[in-house]
Amino acid sequence: MSKNKKKIFSGGLGQLTIPVVAIALLVIFNLIRDPSFFGVDLAHNNDGNIVLSGNLISIINGASELAILAMGMTLVTAACGGQDISVGAAAAIAGSVFVKVLKTSPEISGGKVLLAFICACIVAMIFGSFNGTLVAIFKIQPMIATLILYTCGRSIAYWINGGATPTLSSPIITAIGSFIPGIPIPTPVLIVIAMAIVFKLLFKFTALELFTQSVGINQSAARLNGINSTFIKLLSFIILGVCVAVSGSIGVSRLGLINHETLLLDVEMDTILAVAIGGNNLGGGKFKIGGSIIGAYVIQMLTITLYAMKVSSTDVKAYKAIVIILLVVIGSPVVKEKFGKFMSKLLENRSKETVKGA
User: Fold this and answer.
1) Residues 6+ apart with CB under 8 A from 85
2) How many domains does the chain have?
3) Measuring CA to CA, which residue among 91, 97, 103 is closest to residue 117?
4) How far apart are CA 190 and CA 202, in angstroms?
5) Which of 176, 266, 342, 353 has its Cα between 20 and 30 A from that of 191?
6) Is residue 327 part of a domain?
7) Cα distance between residue 341 and residue 9, in whole Å
8) What are the tens digits of pLDDT across the range 245-268?
9) In terms of residue numbers, what domain contains 138?
10) Chain centroid to CA 341: how far?
11) What is the pLDDT of residues 173-187, one digit of tens each?
């Protein structure tokens, strides 16, 4: 057996194997069920602009907020060995701040939208710092530390706008939440691409990726090598705060209003699942942002598939849970290791048979 094959199977499945296989299986299933499922058409939206439409566009567009949150959650998971369960509530807070700033005057200009977004980022980063402080300095488990904001976050969002659900009527907000005139690709999809590029550049020109993985794998060893583990953990929560602000602003722009009770409701579990499906170790350490992004699209594709099969909205979560359990179990370290050993042994036996036959 070649050395390359031994290397592939001795360590089990590759980190991106599970999300890629999951996407492939969903694509094959949908093509068999309905060959036109992934068809993309040109249509006119309400503003009369030509845009792309179809299930494929709905999948990549609908998963935008989830994909952005999954990027930030991956860093927190890798550095801290735990997850932030308050991202939905924090997004509601960021969205409320975004709307609050925009509603200070009747006119909504490009500069005002930028100012509102910056304010939303600052507030989300402050709350991220709060969570990060509890985890990095006070050594509280991430899920317990973020339970505080998970519990009270939407109430804070409610207070920011005085319990009201103000609407936003502006071509700029509409463009952010749907399509920029003249560009047929949904704006949220372009924002996901921009965020992915930012993370790519961040990892390329800084040592953040290496430091994050080092802290997640062995915090003591990282400290001995001069890495400030407390700062890295805190920074991961701050970066997640930026992702939260971006997602919250997109969510508000889609609806044209802020509803603190429903904005990105229950997105926390989907975000954690996207990270897990992406092949990342929920206990921290090595990670791949790309895997988490694919994981987000797996979840969204599964949701769209179930709706296309006329599954009621009340049953969708149950079906999603069954499929996701299977994906997570298949991608678990135990299954990966056993599969790797099985494939290595199988290839080794075939090599011996080939030698004997020669």
Assistant:
1) 143, 146, 147, 150, 268, 272
2) 1
3) 97
4) 18
5) 266
6) no
7) 7
8) 999 999 999 999 989 889 999 899
9) 54-314
10) 31
11) 999 999 999 999 999
